[in-house]
Specification:
The complex is a heterodimer of chains A (293) and B (519). Chain A has 11 helices and 2 strands. Chain A is mainly alpha-helical and 293 residues long. Chain B contains 17 helices and 14 strands. Classes of the chains: A mainly alpha (293), B alpha+beta (519).
Chain lengths: 293, 519
């Protein structure tokens, strides 16, 4: 092997490589760099032994630790669950009213309920719980089945009109368009419902509608149209309506009513989760005090 | 080669002098000799003060009542509070810390542009701890010559004993340095007990471990290499010096030509400078340089060479200050004087010290040179930020309120047609005692307010308890009847009133109604 040329200026041997007259000096690597490099090699041996490292046809070597991103996530979730366990068990064993009046439990329930709401409820009731036609707004004070803690709890736990839970809220408004009422009668009742909710209406039609209402509707919706929570019958005399309060939408609902279904969340969520959701929904602004103490 | 003056000559090599430095050479150990003189005394005092502040501060107590810690200086990470004597900073007031950091930066600029690298030479922790470590080294191994001899000596029991005791004491200092750090972050007496009994948090042990290692390695083993190779400051500070900044300067205009045989040279009629080439300045240098090579990146301006040289000058009856704090402009004027105003001409020391004493024409540092446009600007910025922070501190309210208007939904229609808006009211009680507040609406006629909270009777807004030094989040619902709504948006305010002191904070917010209402 030919001896490499020594550079005149620096006195350092060149590598013999030359580009356009520029020659490369064969300086040694800085010592700190070299030692760092060796240290990384030593480290990598330990790493390969300890952690999953070498890809195989299926999966990879697991290393002695078996630590993977998946197991780390699992551990972290377990840690979070464990850190919540104390409060969750207290929620489990505490009545709804007492949860609401305990500062710590209330805050925990509202925070937990809020995230449970986003995962499970927001798809129908909206991310701000503002509802949509056919899906009740949970912020307002208009409750179909009652707005105190106990009733909200029952609605969430057992759901509405589902077939999975025997205790689900059940009620069905008959389709008055299927031969019960003539189209003209439906039009008259519609005018009466408009009158109940203080909207513009045809007074003559509403007057004859009132009689039809008393005969067919009042049994559930009440003589004054204020609804009946035991049947989930909506209040017709207020400013809010589930499916819309124009004449056309009201008539359509009388002739062939739509009925929403809500799942029984008690079958999917734990008792503590249902309780947290209850307290959260109750805190949205429309929560009512229990009727009797 | 003995000197013919009665000055001790040191066989000292400036290991970091440019001509002694090679790119790939291993570090040569520096054995700084103990210096004595006015700068050394000043450095002892600064060392005692800075170390004292560092070690003692966490143990100072400050009574804040039963609801807040009684540690004078405490960074409470868990509760997001920073306590500094009478100041108690919340996370949203972090600008105080940011402002102080800006002041520290500007202060460093100011100091550097006037007195040069004083930070490096006197107060930098690296300098202070290296000094401390050197004290220990000297105690066990003796001064420079003894240490050089010990280095070369074979490993016998005496050497092992000396080395071992030195490293043990170094480690003890390192541990207590790391240990003192953690006390700033938790109640010091409790943490000390927990730390010793093994009950402290892992992070406490890890922090002490890391800081012990860095103190031991940086202060004991790496020393000047930290300043020369790791620290960015020498590079940045070099850019901030100008011709009026003080640097440690070898005044070759009176020192050269140097000779160890002054008497012989004078007798031979040769030109002789003040420098007797005794190498005292090299022997004391902790950075391993020869200041006579001129200003260098390695020089931290610790001024120990000034002390060493002044001692020699005193002994041989010359004026002190052959090595001195001097500015480039002073130096240039004196150099011009010594060379007879002929650039490039040889130095003629008799021009600057005709009678053996320095001539009156020789320039000395004048404190008036400190006042320059540049330093005035630095001072102005420094003072402006400082005053701003003091004003902010004095005007700071111990009660702060943030109100967030619900955005989803912006408003809710209720069954009677009225419109309700929801708000999150955050009340920050920055006093270290519990307080009660009432909330009232201002500027929204006919509105009703309902609060949601575990201890709040719905409708009662007169007593909202907020714990000492805590934030409380209250849900507020404001309802306005259909007829009372005047516009789509109405501005109003929540008035939060302390029920005892009547401190009031108003938070301006909006009431939103559906499009078309009120028109």
């Amino acid at each position: 092997m030919a001896k490499n040329e020594i550079d005149d200026v620096s006195g350092v041997e060149t590598t013999g490589h030359e580009w356009d007259g520029i020659k490369e000096l064969n300086n040694p690597l800085p010592r700190w760099w070299l030692w760092t490099f060796y240290a990384t090699i030593v480290f990598s041996i330990g790493y390969v032994i300890y952690y999953p490292a070498i890809p195989l046809l299926e999966g990879s070597t697991m290393g002695v630790s078996g630590v993977t991103n998946r197991s780390l996530l699992h551990d972290e979730l377990a840690r979070v669950e464990a850190s919540k366990a104390g409060l969750v068990s207290r929620i489990d064993s505490t009545g709804l009213e007492d949860i609401r009046s305990d500062e710590e439990l209330f805050r925990f329930a509202v925070a937990g309920g809020s995230s449970l709401y986003k995962v499970n409820c927001s798809q129908c009731h909206g991310s701000g719980a503002q509802g949509a036609p056919g899906y009740p707004n949970l912020n307002d004070d208009d409750w179909l089945w009652g707005g105190d803690l106990e009733n909200i709890y029952l609605t969430i736990k057992h759901g509405v009109r589902n077939e999975d839970d025997d205790d689900a809220r059940q009620s069905e408004m008959p389709a008055f368009g299927d031969g019960v009422l003539e189209p003209a009668q439906i039009a008259d009742v519609t005018q009466y419902v408009l009158q109940l909710s203080s909207q513009e209406h045809d007074a003559t039609a509403a007057k004859s509608g009132a009689a039809i209402y008393a005969e067919n509707c009042a049994v559930c919706h009440g003589d004054d149209g204020k609804g009946g929570r035991e049947f989930g019958a909506p209040n017709l005399a207020d400013a809010l309506s589930l499916y819309g309060n124009t004449a056309g939408l009201i008539a359509a609902q009388i002739a062939k009513p739509k009925h929403g279904v809500m799942p029984a969340w008690g079958l999917k969520l734990t008792e503590a989760e249902v309780k947290q959701l209850t307290v959260y929904v109750h805190s949205l602004g429309g929560g009512e005090q229990a009727a009797t103490q | 080669m003995a000197s013919d003056t009665n000055v001790e000559t040191f066989d000292a090599e400036a290991v970091n002098a440019k001509h002694n430095r090679e790119l790939y050479a291993a570090r040569q150990k520096i054995h700084p000799k103990r210096a004595s003189g006015s700068f050394r005394s000043l450095k002892w005092i600064i060392m005692a003060v800075t170390l004292g502040i560092y070690y003692i501060t966490p143990w100072l107590r400050w009574d804040r009542g039963e609801f807040a810690p009684d540690q004078a200086v405490l960074v409470d990470m868990a509760n997001r509070r920073f306590y500094f004597f009478f100041i108690d900073i919340w996370p949203h007031e972090f600008f105080f810390v940011a402002g102080m950091l800006v002041m520290a930066g500007i202060g460093l600029f100011l100091v550097t542009s006037t007195v040069g690298r004083a930070w490096c030479g006197y107060t930098c922790p690296q300098t202070v701890w290296v000094d401390l470590f050197l004290v220990v080294e000297r105690f066990f191994e003796g001064d420079r010559n003894a240490r050089i001899k010990l280095d070369a000596a074979p490993w016998n029991s005496a050497k092992i004993a000396k080395r071992a005791s030195k490293h043990v004491v170094w480690l003890l200092i390192a541990v207590s340095t790391g240990g003192a750090w953690i006390f700033y972050f938790a109640d010091a007496p409790t943490l000390l007990r927990d730390f010793i009994t093994g009950n402290a948090a892992f992070v406490a042990y890890a922090t002490v471990g890391v800081l012990t290692a860095t103190t031991y390695v940086f202060g004991g083993l790496m020393r000047e290499q930290v300043c020369t190779y790791m620290c960015p400051w020498p590079r940045i500070q070099a850019a901030m010096l100008d011709e009026h900044s003080l640097t440690v300067t070898y005044n070759d205009w009176r020192g050269e030509p140097r000779t160890r045989h002054a008497k012989k040279a004078i007798a031979a009629g040769e030109v002789v400078g003040d420098c007797v080439d005794c190498n005292a300045c090299v022997a004391v240098c902790p950075m391993g340089i020869d200041i006579r090579d001129g200003q260098q990146l390695e020089c931290i301006t610790c001024a120990l060479c000034i002390d060493a040289c002044d001692g020699v000058m005193e002994k041989i009856g010359r004026d002190k200050g052959l090595i001195s704090y001097s500015t480039l402009s002073t130096y240039n004027q004196n150099m011009a004087l010594a060379t007879g105003n002929t650039p490039g001409a040889g130095i003629q020391p008799q021009l600057v010290r005709p009678e053996g004493r320095l001539a009156a024409a020789v320039q000395h540092f004048n404190w008036r040179n400190v006042i320059r446009v540049r330093t005035a600007i630095y001072t102005a910025i420094y003072a402006a930020i400082g005053l701003g922070l003091i004003v902010a501190l004095l005007m700071r309210s111990p009660l702060d309120v943030n109100v967030l208007h619900d955005r989803n939904p912006q408003f809710v229609q209720l069954s009677d047609g009225s419109i309700r808006n929801g708000y999150q009211i955050k009340i920050l009680n920055m006093r270290t005692e519990p307080r009660s507040f009432s909330i009232a609406l201002d500027g929204l006629a006919g509105a009703t307010l309902k609060l949601e909270g575990s201890d709040l009777d719905q409708g009662d807004n007169s007593k909202i308890d907020v714990k000492a030094n805590q934030l409380r989040n209250v849900r507020a619902f404001v309802t306005l009847s259909k007829d009372a709504i005047a516009a789509k948006t109405t501005d109003f305010a929540f008035k939060i009133v302390d029920t005892t002191s009547a401190d009031t904070v108003a938070a301006n917010v909006r009431f939103e109604a559906p499009s078309g209402t009120g028109q």
